[in-house]
Specification:
single chain, 228 residues, alpha+beta, Alpha-Beta Plaits, globular, Adenylate/guanylate cyclase domain-containing protein, Nucleotide_cyclase
Length: 228
Protein backbone atom coordinates (compact mmCIF):
# COMPACT_ATOMS: atom_id res chain seq x y z
CA UNK A 1 0.00 0.00 0.00
CA UNK A 2 2.79 2.44 0.87
CA UNK A 3 4.47 1.79 -2.48
CA UNK A 4 1.23 2.16 -4.42
CA UNK A 5 0.35 5.45 -2.76
CA UNK A 6 3.88 6.80 -3.13
CA UNK A 7 3.88 6.01 -6.84
CA UNK A 8 0.48 7.59 -7.35
CA UNK A 9 1.39 10.83 -5.58
CA UNK A 10 4.73 11.09 -7.36
CA UNK A 11 3.10 10.53 -10.75
CA UNK A 12 0.35 13.01 -9.91
CA UNK A 13 2.80 15.74 -8.97
CA UNK A 14 4.96 15.06 -12.05
CA UNK A 15 2.15 15.15 -14.62
CA UNK A 16 0.99 18.28 -16.42
CA UNK A 17 -2.66 19.27 -16.26
CA UNK A 18 -4.89 19.22 -19.33
CA UNK A 19 -7.54 21.92 -18.95
CA UNK A 20 -10.36 23.22 -21.11
CA UNK A 21 -13.03 25.89 -20.68
CA UNK A 22 -16.42 24.39 -19.94
CA UNK A 23 -19.63 25.44 -21.68
CA UNK A 24 -21.83 23.25 -19.47
CA UNK A 25 -21.54 22.06 -15.87
CA UNK A 26 -19.57 18.80 -16.10
CA UNK A 27 -20.49 15.41 -14.65
CA UNK A 28 -18.08 12.67 -13.61
CA UNK A 29 -17.88 11.04 -17.04
CA UNK A 30 -16.83 14.33 -18.67
CA UNK A 31 -13.48 14.40 -16.86
CA UNK A 32 -10.78 11.74 -16.66
CA UNK A 33 -9.23 10.45 -13.44
CA UNK A 34 -5.81 11.73 -14.50
CA UNK A 35 -4.71 15.38 -14.46
CA UNK A 36 -7.72 16.46 -16.49
CA UNK A 37 -9.84 19.48 -15.55
CA UNK A 38 -12.59 21.81 -16.73
CA UNK A 39 -12.51 25.54 -15.95
CA UNK A 40 -15.75 27.42 -15.34
CA UNK A 41 -16.83 30.91 -14.37
CA UNK A 42 -19.63 30.06 -11.95
CA UNK A 43 -21.87 30.99 -9.06
CA UNK A 44 -22.04 28.33 -6.35
CA UNK A 45 -25.01 27.88 -4.04
CA UNK A 46 -25.06 25.78 -0.87
CA UNK A 47 -28.42 25.21 0.85
CA UNK A 48 -27.99 23.82 4.36
CA UNK A 49 -30.54 22.46 6.84
CA UNK A 50 -29.70 24.25 10.09
CA UNK A 51 -29.24 22.44 13.42
CA UNK A 52 -29.54 18.98 11.89
CA UNK A 53 -27.62 17.51 14.83
CA UNK A 54 -30.33 18.75 17.19
CA UNK A 55 -32.93 17.25 14.86
CA UNK A 56 -31.42 13.77 14.65
CA UNK A 57 -30.58 13.69 18.38
CA UNK A 58 -33.99 14.88 19.58
CA UNK A 59 -36.53 13.38 17.17
CA UNK A 60 -37.25 9.96 15.75
CA UNK A 61 -35.32 8.91 12.66
CA UNK A 62 -38.38 8.80 10.39
CA UNK A 63 -39.35 12.35 11.39
CA UNK A 64 -35.81 13.63 10.78
CA UNK A 65 -35.82 11.88 7.41
CA UNK A 66 -39.11 13.59 6.52
CA UNK A 67 -37.54 16.98 7.29
CA UNK A 68 -34.39 16.16 5.31
CA UNK A 69 -36.40 14.99 2.31
CA UNK A 70 -38.85 17.89 2.36
CA UNK A 71 -36.03 20.45 2.47
CA UNK A 72 -33.62 18.84 0.01
CA UNK A 73 -36.35 17.95 -2.50
CA UNK A 74 -37.75 21.48 -2.44
CA UNK A 75 -34.30 23.05 -2.74
CA UNK A 76 -33.31 20.77 -5.60
CA UNK A 77 -36.50 21.42 -7.57
CA UNK A 78 -36.08 25.18 -7.17
CA UNK A 79 -32.40 25.07 -8.12
CA UNK A 80 -33.06 23.11 -11.29
CA UNK A 81 -36.03 25.30 -12.22
CA UNK A 82 -33.74 28.34 -11.83
CA UNK A 83 -31.18 26.98 -14.28
CA UNK A 84 -28.74 25.60 -11.73
CA UNK A 85 -27.04 22.21 -11.85
CA UNK A 86 -27.11 20.08 -8.70
CA UNK A 87 -23.56 18.85 -8.16
CA UNK A 88 -23.65 17.14 -4.75
CA UNK A 89 -25.72 16.17 -1.75
CA UNK A 90 -23.77 16.13 1.49
CA UNK A 91 -25.93 14.87 4.33
CA UNK A 92 -28.21 17.78 5.17
CA UNK A 93 -27.19 20.14 2.35
CA UNK A 94 -27.14 20.44 -1.41
CA UNK A 95 -24.56 22.13 -3.64
CA UNK A 96 -25.44 23.70 -6.97
CA UNK A 97 -23.53 25.48 -9.74
CA UNK A 98 -24.90 28.22 -12.00
CA UNK A 99 -23.11 29.28 -15.19
CA UNK A 100 -23.93 31.59 -18.09
CA UNK A 101 -25.81 34.86 -18.27
CA UNK A 102 -27.13 36.33 -15.03
CA UNK A 103 -25.81 33.38 -13.07
CA UNK A 104 -25.57 35.40 -9.85
CA UNK A 105 -29.12 36.71 -10.21
CA UNK A 106 -30.50 33.24 -10.91
CA UNK A 107 -28.64 31.79 -7.93
CA UNK A 108 -29.93 34.50 -5.57
CA UNK A 109 -33.49 34.11 -6.82
CA UNK A 110 -33.18 30.37 -6.20
CA UNK A 111 -31.92 31.01 -2.67
CA UNK A 112 -34.81 33.34 -1.93
CA UNK A 113 -37.32 30.89 -3.40
CA UNK A 114 -35.94 28.20 -1.10
CA UNK A 115 -36.62 30.59 1.78
CA UNK A 116 -40.21 30.99 0.51
CA UNK A 117 -40.65 27.21 0.27
CA UNK A 118 -39.43 26.72 3.84
CA UNK A 119 -41.62 29.48 5.30
CA UNK A 120 -44.76 29.06 3.21
CA UNK A 121 -44.84 25.37 2.28
CA UNK A 122 -42.73 23.10 4.52
CA UNK A 123 -43.37 24.73 7.91
CA UNK A 124 -47.15 25.06 7.47
CA UNK A 125 -47.39 21.45 6.24
CA UNK A 126 -45.39 20.25 9.25
CA UNK A 127 -47.59 22.19 11.69
CA UNK A 128 -50.74 20.85 10.04
CA UNK A 129 -49.50 17.27 10.36
CA UNK A 130 -47.96 17.53 13.85
CA UNK A 131 -49.53 20.57 15.57
CA UNK A 132 -48.17 19.72 19.02
CA UNK A 133 -44.57 19.20 17.94
CA UNK A 134 -42.21 22.12 18.63
CA UNK A 135 -39.58 21.48 15.92
CA UNK A 136 -39.12 24.42 13.51
CA UNK A 137 -37.21 23.71 10.31
CA UNK A 138 -34.56 26.36 9.66
CA UNK A 139 -32.01 26.70 6.91
CA UNK A 140 -29.23 28.88 5.47
CA UNK A 141 -28.19 29.46 1.86
CA UNK A 142 -24.67 30.68 0.97
CA UNK A 143 -23.73 31.97 -2.50
CA UNK A 144 -20.43 33.11 -4.02
CA UNK A 145 -19.09 33.49 -7.57
CA UNK A 146 -15.60 32.93 -8.98
CA UNK A 147 -13.66 30.85 -11.51
CA UNK A 148 -13.67 27.13 -10.66
CA UNK A 149 -11.20 24.39 -11.49
CA UNK A 150 -13.14 21.11 -11.69
CA UNK A 151 -11.27 17.83 -11.43
CA UNK A 152 -12.17 14.20 -10.79
CA UNK A 153 -10.83 12.46 -7.72
CA UNK A 154 -11.05 9.08 -6.03
CA UNK A 155 -10.50 5.59 -7.38
CA UNK A 156 -12.17 3.59 -10.12
CA UNK A 157 -15.65 2.65 -9.03
CA UNK A 158 -15.70 5.27 -6.26
CA UNK A 159 -14.98 8.79 -7.48
CA UNK A 160 -16.51 12.23 -7.70
CA UNK A 161 -15.78 15.74 -8.90
CA UNK A 162 -13.96 18.30 -6.77
CA UNK A 163 -14.81 21.96 -7.27
CA UNK A 164 -11.64 23.91 -6.56
CA UNK A 165 -12.01 27.65 -6.22
CA UNK A 166 -13.08 30.39 -3.86
CA UNK A 167 -16.79 30.20 -4.69
CA UNK A 168 -17.19 26.57 -3.66
CA UNK A 169 -15.31 27.07 -0.41
CA UNK A 170 -16.82 30.40 0.58
CA UNK A 171 -20.41 29.49 -0.32
CA UNK A 172 -20.10 26.40 1.88
CA UNK A 173 -18.80 28.48 4.79
CA UNK A 174 -21.59 31.03 4.37
CA UNK A 175 -24.16 28.22 4.54
CA UNK A 176 -22.93 27.58 8.10
CA UNK A 177 -23.73 31.16 9.16
CA UNK A 178 -26.33 32.00 11.86
CA UNK A 179 -29.84 31.00 10.77
CA UNK A 180 -31.51 34.22 11.95
CA UNK A 181 -30.81 35.30 8.35
CA UNK A 182 -31.50 32.84 5.55
CA UNK A 183 -29.48 34.05 2.54
CA UNK A 184 -25.83 35.10 2.64
CA UNK A 185 -23.95 36.33 -0.43
CA UNK A 186 -20.47 37.70 -1.09
CA UNK A 187 -19.70 41.11 -2.65
CA UNK A 188 -18.88 39.32 -5.91
CA UNK A 189 -22.52 38.22 -6.07
CA UNK A 190 -24.09 41.37 -4.64
CA UNK A 191 -22.36 43.59 -7.21
CA UNK A 192 -24.06 41.69 -10.04
CA UNK A 193 -27.63 42.00 -8.73
CA UNK A 194 -30.21 44.25 -10.31
CA UNK A 195 -32.39 46.70 -8.41
CA UNK A 196 -35.25 44.20 -8.08
CA UNK A 197 -33.07 42.12 -5.76
CA UNK A 198 -31.47 44.94 -3.78
CA UNK A 199 -34.29 47.38 -3.05
CA UNK A 200 -38.06 46.90 -2.76
CA UNK A 201 -40.28 49.98 -2.39
CA UNK A 202 -37.39 51.91 -0.87
CA UNK A 203 -36.47 49.16 1.60
CA UNK A 204 -33.01 47.61 1.45
CA UNK A 205 -33.12 43.85 0.95
CA UNK A 206 -29.59 43.21 2.23
CA UNK A 207 -27.64 44.04 5.36
CA UNK A 208 -23.86 44.07 5.51
CA UNK A 209 -22.36 41.64 8.01
CA UNK A 210 -18.80 40.66 8.78
CA UNK A 211 -18.21 36.95 8.43
CA UNK A 212 -15.62 35.77 10.95
CA UNK A 213 -15.07 32.53 9.04
CA UNK A 214 -14.26 34.42 5.82
CA UNK A 215 -12.70 37.47 7.51
CA UNK A 216 -14.51 39.97 5.29
CA UNK A 217 -17.92 41.64 5.03
CA UNK A 218 -20.73 39.90 3.16
CA UNK A 219 -24.44 40.57 2.69
CA UNK A 220 -27.33 38.77 4.39
CA UNK A 221 -31.10 38.86 4.03
CA UNK A 222 -34.31 37.47 5.48
CA UNK A 223 -36.32 38.28 2.34
CA UNK A 224 -37.93 35.63 0.17
CA UNK A 225 -38.92 35.53 -3.47
CA UNK A 226 -42.41 34.07 -3.88
CA UNK A 227 -43.49 31.74 -6.66
CA UNK A 228 -45.58 33.30 -9.43
Amino acid sequence: MRQQLTEYVQNLFSSNWTTRNGQVVPVETDIGLGNDAVQLDAAVLYADLADSTVLVDGWRAWFAADMYKAFLHSAAKIIRDSGGAITAYDGDRVMAVFIGDKKEIRAVRAGMKINYAVKEIIRPAKVAKWPDDHYVLKHVVGIDASPLFVARTGIRGANDLVWVGRAANHAAKLAASPDDYQTYITPAVFNQLDISLTNVNGAAVWQQWRSESLNYSVYRSTWHFSFT
